[in-house]
């Protein structure tokens, strides 16, 4: 009976190719995220300026140019380490969790969508372990702390020694919500879009890669807009070092009522256009790279 279950509910596969070893999904997830960070970091930095100070994109771009080439990639190491590790956890934990749920006797008869949602949430929560990198990135990119923190490791040591490990997890609540929601939408959305798209009889690797870029871009841009307010709240919560922790709700209220006594929801969406462009290219690159590596590996192995 156990063998029948394992045959009927085999591990999730990608684009019709045979299943890769579990460790490959961790490695290729890290590689895909790394490519995205290095290519798109300058654009991300202008979005950060908008989230932090609420300035228009043109003004953020001017500020980026004024800082110069020397500061262009300041703060890139934390997101590179964090995103590479996050990509490994996102793709690796999601695939491993889904494989476990699909093959386990207690859960194999649940719907595939539920398997994917649960495994996506687990992956998102596991990614939150890497918040210290995201926290330090916020500090290094904030002009108020340029003189206080020299680099990633200096900031980590300084913040931990002066304020404790807890300070590195300031802004945890919006990160947990963002990660689980974004992962669920991404993995379920990619499966659905990939199932309904029109396929030619003999598709080349290049064609599949372009399709994955398009699907990833569509999903990334959409999910980026949906979760953008959570990133704004997270950035504001992490903009200070030391002192009391501002909760999710007080931070949201302070942002909405920042400029006047009347609520301004648009404050939560400043930077959306640039973020949409970044998300389209970022998730296009991530999705294309990840599935390309899986496909090449399945051909070699």
Automatic annotation (TrEMBL):
<dbReference type="InterPro" id="IPR023395">
    <property type="entry name" value="MCP_dom_sf"/>
</dbReference>
<feature type="transmembrane region" description="Helical">
    <location>
        <begin position="209"/>
        <end position="230"/>
    </location>
</feature>
<dbReference type="Pfam" id="PF00153">
    <property type="entry name" value="Mito_carr"/>
</dbReference>
<protein>
    <submittedName>
        <fullName>Solute carrier family 25 member 51</fullName>
    </submittedName>
</protein>
<feature type="repeat" description="Solcar">
    <location>
        <begin position="111"/>
        <end position="196"/>
    </location>
</feature>
<dbReference type="InterPro" id="IPR018108">
    <property type="entry name" value="MCP_transmembrane"/>
</dbReference>
<keyword id="KW-0677">Repeat</keyword>
<dbReference type="InterPro" id="IPR002067">
    <property type="entry name" value="MCP"/>
</dbReference>
<keyword id="KW-0813">Transport</keyword>
<keyword id="KW-0472">Membrane</keyword>
<keyword id="KW-0496">Mitochondrion</keyword>
<feature type="repeat" description="Solcar">
    <location>
        <begin position="207"/>
        <end position="296"/>
    </location>
</feature>
<comment type="similarity">
    <text>Belongs to the mitochondrial carrier (TC 2.A.29) family.</text>
</comment>
<keyword id="KW-0812">Transmembrane</keyword>
<feature type="transmembrane region" description="Helical">
    <location>
        <begin position="26"/>
        <end position="44"/>
    </location>
</feature>
<dbReference type="GO" id="GO:0051724">
    <property type="term" value="F:NAD transmembrane transporter activity"/>
</dbReference>
<feature type="transmembrane region" description="Helical">
    <location>
        <begin position="276"/>
        <end position="294"/>
    </location>
</feature>
<feature type="repeat" description="Solcar">
    <location>
        <begin position="20"/>
        <end position="100"/>
    </location>
</feature>
<keyword id="KW-1133">Transmembrane helix</keyword>
<dbReference type="InterPro" id="IPR052465">
    <property type="entry name" value="Mito_NAD+_Carrier"/>
</dbReference>
<keyword id="KW-0999">Mitochondrion inner membrane</keyword>
<dbReference type="GO" id="GO:0005743">
    <property type="term" value="C:mitochondrial inner membrane"/>
</dbReference>
């Amino acid at each position: 009976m156990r063998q029948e279950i394992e045959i009927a509910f085999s591990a999730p596969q990608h684009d019709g190719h045979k299943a890769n070893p579990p460790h490959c999904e961790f490695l290729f997830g890290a590689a895909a995220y790394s490519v995205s960070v290095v290519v798109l970091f300058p654009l991300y930095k202008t979005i950060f300026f908008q989230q932090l100070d609420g300035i228009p994109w043109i003004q953020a771009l001017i500020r980026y140019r004024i800082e110069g080439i020397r500061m262009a990639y300041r703060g890139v190491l934390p997101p590179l380490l964090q995103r590479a590790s996050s990509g490994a956890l996102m793709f690796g934990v999601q695939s491993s969790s889904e494989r476990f749920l699909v093959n386990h006797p207690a859960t194999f008869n649940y719907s595939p969508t539920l398997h994917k949602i649960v495994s996506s949430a687990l992956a998102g929560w596991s990614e939150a372990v890497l918040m210290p990198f995201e926290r330090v990135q916020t500090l290094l990119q904030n002009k108020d702390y340029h003189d206080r923190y020299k680099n990633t490791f200096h900031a980590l040591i300084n913040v931990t020694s002066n304020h404790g490990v807890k300070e590195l997890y300031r802004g945890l609540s919006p990160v947990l919500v963002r990660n689980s929601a974004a992962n669920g939408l991404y993995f379920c959305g990619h499966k659905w879009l990939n199932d309904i798209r029109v396929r030619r009889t003999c598709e080349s690797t290049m064609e599949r890669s372009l399709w994955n870029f398009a699907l990833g871009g569509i999903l990334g841009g959409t999910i980026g807009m949906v979760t953008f307010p959570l990133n704004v709240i997270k950035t504001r919560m992490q903009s200070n070092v030391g002192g009391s922790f501002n909760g999710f709700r007080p931070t949201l209220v302070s942002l909405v009522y920042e400029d006047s006594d009347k609520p301004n929801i648009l404050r939560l969406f400043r930077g959306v256009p640039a973020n949409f462009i970044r998300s389209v290219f970022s998730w296009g690159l991530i999705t294309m790279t990840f599935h390309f590596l899986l496909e090449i590996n399945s051909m070699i192995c």
